[in-house]
Amino acid sequence: MSTPPSASAARSEVRQVAPKLIELSESVLYGDVWERPGLSKRDRSLVTVAALTAMSRSDQLAGHLERALANGVTREEIGELITHLAFYAGWPAAMTAGRIARKVFDGARP
């Protein structure tokens, strides 16, 4: 498994190719969608981690696991989410998410 860049490093890298994508990410996704009152940031983190796990989006998962922890999701809840998704998203996706989560919990970016 290769080491994905940090969220800010990834944004800087993509900004060189698609600056509008990063502008929209910062202003719309994080500036509006994540700030909407309909779901708490904690709930948005749970949904996002579940979606990234189910879609096997490993490059994005580590950063969103870090965000989930910062938003109040516990390690135990992340473990339960990963276990639950093994039956809906597939065992390999759950195993990959578990490995990434372990590295995030240990403080090392995967």
Describe it:
The structure is a single chain. The protein starts with 6 loop residues before the first helix and ends in a 5-residue tail after the last helix. The model has no long low-confidence stretch (mean pLDDT 92). Helix content is 67%, strand content 0%. Helix 3 (41-54) packs antiparallel against helix 4. By secondary structure, the protein is an all-alpha fold. It has a single domain (7-105), classed as AhpD-like (Up-down Bundle). It is globular.
Topology:
Blueprint: H1 7-15, H2 19-29, H3 41-54, H4 58-70, H5 75-86, H6 91-105
Helix pairs in contact: 1-2, 3-4, 3-5, 4-6, 5-6
In short:
This protein has 110 residues and is mainly α.
How much of the polypeptide forms β-strand, as a percent range? under 5%
The percent of residues in helical segments reads: 55-70%
Computed CA radius of gyration, to the nearest angstrom: 14 Å
Question: Oligomeric form of this entry?
Answer: single chain
Number of strands: 0
- The topology string of helices and strands comes to HHHHHH
The secondary-structure class comes to: mainly alpha
- Distance between the ends: 8 Å
The low-confidence runs, each spanning 5 or more residues with pLDDT under 50, are none
**Top CATH class:** Mainly Alpha
CATH architecture: Up-down Bundle
Largest sheet: none
**At the third CATH level, what is the topology name?**
AhpD-like
Mean pLDDT: 92
